[in-house]
Amino acid sequence: MHDKTSPPQDRLDRARQLESEIARAVIGQQQVVHEVVLALFAAGHVLVEGVPGLGKTLLVRSLSAAIQGEFSRIQFTPDLMPSDISGHIMFDMKSENFRVRKGPVFCNLLLADEINRSPAKTQSALLEAMQEQQVTIEGRTFPLTAPFLVLATQNPIEQEGTYPLPQAQLDRFLLKVFIDYPAEDDEQQMVKQITDGRVGDQLDTSTIRPLMSAEEIPQIQNHVASLKVDDEIINYAVRLIRAARDWNGIEAGPGPRGTISLLRAARAEAFLGERDFVTPDDIKRAALPVLRHRVRLTTDLEIEGYRPEDVLKDLLDNLPAPRK
Amino acid sequence: MDLDRIAIKLRPRESWEGIDLGFTMARQWFIKLWLIWLCSALPVMLLLVVLPLPLWLAGLILWWLKPVYEPPLLYWMSRRVFSETISLRGVFSDWRRIVLPQLIAMLSWRRFTPARSFFMPVVVLEGLRGERRKKRINVLAKNSGAASWLTVVGIHFEVILQFGLLGLILALIPEDLLWTDWQSYLFDPDPVSEWLHHLTALAAMSLIAPFYVAAGFALYLTRRSQLEAWDLELGLRRMAQRHETRPVTMRNILLACIALMFIGVSLPETAQAVEMSHQEAKSLIQEVLSEDAFGEEKTVSYWEYVGEEESQSEEPDSAFFRWLASIAESIAFLGELLLWIVVMALLFYLLHWYFNNRSTLGGSVVELRDRRATPTIVAGLDLRPETMPDNPSVKALEMIDQGRCREGVALLYRATLSRLVHYYALPIKAGDTEGQCLDRSRTLQIPGLFDYLSELTAIWQKLAYAQHQPQKNQLVDLCHAWIEHFGGRDAG
């Protein structure tokens, strides 16, 4: 590839196969699978919005199986404590010593189910771990093992008694992904595949081949981060974000972290597109999942039922793309 | 029909008062009427549930069969008005006799008669058909306007009631259990919504039907009472009953006879029994007619112009009026001119819009290819044909030979976009990336073009965004292939 420190080609090829491998178990959610793999290679976290029962746990389990990573799941509830996530120190009667009991956050892939069910204090414990890649328990700091990807979910229907994530915390997620009902054919195939010869409703990831080890992922992430980005592309990303701040219908636009995230996601897009350089197409493809949770629409547009995607699509259509 | 037993107060009424009377009757006997209607309609509804019909058709049939459910109500009311109580069983034992005659007519060409409720007694109670029915309706027709309005208002109330019931049901269902919303309900209903629609329609129809039938029947009674002076007949009968116990004077009897002559009804039995000579009767009639009640004279005065008619041709005499008229004419002329200008401008705008949007309106690609489009700047790049060299591929080849590969490919790519926009009328937006332009070109379906554009775009992207220098022979091939695809035309 483009420098001597790049991982071997076969490793890159295996990384690119992740998407199709996971899609074998998670049927009919190609876009979601693509975006989650994108976030993994861009070393970001994903906020998933969708009703329950669409295969979010299966998705993370499948990804975990494909990269042989450690998987944890936390169901966020109103009484969940920060220590339930990060862990705590307990007194071991046998050894008469304090022992650290690490929480579920110590893993490679964490599914934070219904993150908006817990109060801000608990949410921030996880969000801090996401940002810092480390956890502090009773004054001692423990680094998290790379790769560390959090897939937090929100249920768009049941909003009673929830604690919506503030804008500053939403900004920590690289992508916001919508998971929708699969198409009829996909659903039929999925039901057939899952129910044939299965007892109970345990998720089956046995069809997933382990393509690589979790330790290889940071190398891929480093490779992705070093992909070439032309100044024109950076200029396009900056123009896009700046235009979003002043665009008609957007009350609060994305900050500089949005631009950084956009370029990270665009690099991962270029990697999955088997290129070693970023094109304006990568920026455009990454723009919606990167920006949709970073903009807030004006009240009148919200009342009229517009979604951030509608306004962002309008922006992307009208902002001149770079042509040298 | 025994008028002595009539349960309503007979008096001359306007049509609207007649409808009021009907509503009073419906309120009075609502439960009975409602049950009779349901007994007719529910079996139909259940049958429709069982039959494998599309839901919309089931709803339509339920509505169409309204003339089947209504006659039993009318039959029951016609008995009840004359103080005869009839049970539900009694009504339905006569069902065939009440409903079946003229059912086909009522369900076909008479289904949309607006005064259906008013004319129904003619068919159901009088049993008239054909020419006799027609004549009878012509005689009764005075109240048909009110009856038509009754139908119009009834339809509106039925719809309001139905949607009110629906709204109530949907409002009472907890949000989590709510499977639909108004938009889906109206434009894309699921089977549950459709059945709910039919059930609420049935409920609304059942609530409105007693009022509708009773009001139509009351209009019919009002009209017949007017025509046949039922109120007078009834009054005279009561007078006769009162005088049965008193000595009857000849004068009173004669008065009654004369009154009946005027109203054209049969004489009461007591009056028919009186015998009198022709001469005596004549003198008595003269005597009665000479009384104030018959011989009153009135003098009415009014003004009427009896002078000569003035000439109609009135020209404005004064110069002022002539000036005013000329101003008005000028304004009218200017207005007309302005209107024509607006019409022409609109026409021009429409033609202009049509020619600019022919590709999206299904215009032929071949025609568009030959058309010279207005020079435009597209997507921030100057793609005007006149800004291109005479032969872009030759010029690009020269640049490549001189080692200016990047400039050469840039020119080739720009010229390609220009051709796509101006000769193939490809709609490229300002925000389109190279990949999107490529995707759009797929719609042109010109053999080999998409493959060529894919190769050119890939080389251009590598050169522009990754500074990857392509091999020279690859670029030369691209330039030659460009001539094959676009070369037969002038650039400018």
TrEMBL record, chain A:
Belongs to the MoxR family. Signal peptide: none annotated. Pfam families: AAA_3, AAA_lid_2. Residues 45-175 form the ATPase AAA-3 domain. Residues 249-314 form the ChlI/MoxR AAA lid domain. It comes from the Bacteria. InterPro entries: ATPase_AAA-3, CbbQ/NirQ/NorQ/GpvN, ChlI/MoxR_AAA_lid, P-loop_NTPase. GO terms for molecular function: ATP binding; ATP hydrolysis activity. This is MoxR family ATPase. Keywords: ATP-binding, Nucleotide-binding. Gene3D superfamilies: Magnesium chelatase subunit I, C-Terminal domain, P-loop containing nucleotide triphosphate hydrolases. The lineage of its organism: Bacteria, Pseudomonadati, Pseudomonadota, Gammaproteobacteria, Chromatiales. It comes from Candidatus Thiodiazotropha lotti.
